[in-house]
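Box 3.1 A note on notation
Throughout this textbook, protein chains are presented in two layers. The first layer is the amino acid sequence; the second is a token string describing backbone geometry. Keep the layers aligned when reading.
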Amino acid sequence: MQPAALTVFLVDDEPLARLRLRSLLEACVDPRAEVVAEAGSATQAQHWLRDHANHGHLYALLAYCALQEGESEQANSAWQKAQQFLPALKAETISG
């Protein structure tokens, strides 16, 4: 039985960094990694998520990334979406 692939959403503002990460992930065999999307910013990631509903864990990660970028409004919006799909999801804080 083959292990499930890791689902990866690459978010980085440097295109070359995304390219390198993608090549490293494609080389992974155990566990296999599948890049489902790429974005150059938290805003782009949020647009992708809006079009591809039911990715609760990705919304939680987007909330974290947006918070790191100082985008507290986007972080709160993404966190609310994450909790819609994963009501049991908890965080210490999601404020900037």
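The chain has a mean pLDDT of 81. The domain at 6-85 is CATH 3.40.50 (Rossmann fold).
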